[in-house]
Amino acid sequence: LALSSRLPAGSLVESGRLSASAATAVFLVVLVPRLAHLAIARPLFDGVYWAMADSLLRDGTLAIGGTITTDFEPLYPMFLAAVRTVVGDHPMAVQLVQALLTSCGGICLHRLVVTLTGDRRVAAIAVLFFALDPLLVRQASLHSESALMTALVAGFASAFVRADGAAGAARAGLCYSWSVLWRPDASAVPTRWPYLRSSSSIYSAPYI
User: Which segments of 53-109 are extended strands (E)?
Assistant: First the structure.
């Protein structure tokens, strides 16, 4: 899969790029355990976010049992509502879409680690941990915003360390703002920015 060789000296930003075949391989490595868990465990997919998505689809409000609420972040219910307009009210189909999207976080993580370390072997190990971590595998098909928020944070970190202009900064800012709207816990990420930006040093890698 060409994921396990040390890169030659040069721009780390350039080194983080993945070919289409390598990106597909990383995506599938992350996706397969999530699909296996979904097929075997068939976790229940229902709760307040599903109810809020019901309300959005019915009358365009974020409500639970007819009462408008601001107790929850809006982006995940909006995501569920958008997916349900495409696949219908089929929880398994929504879970499948969620698993597909969260698996993209592996690609972002690979790019981030290669940019920070310049070593595809380290990136391959990081992707394997991401792919096989029991909690992340389980969260990918749960009625929870956590897995998608994790993928967004990985996307932000990858975009941030590679940003070399206004467009790159805009991509990083978009991922960060989406992750905060998904779950406010992500607002703590900027405290690690100085370490992420020191991408020329391998010692910044632990801060991923």
Answer: 63-64, 67-68
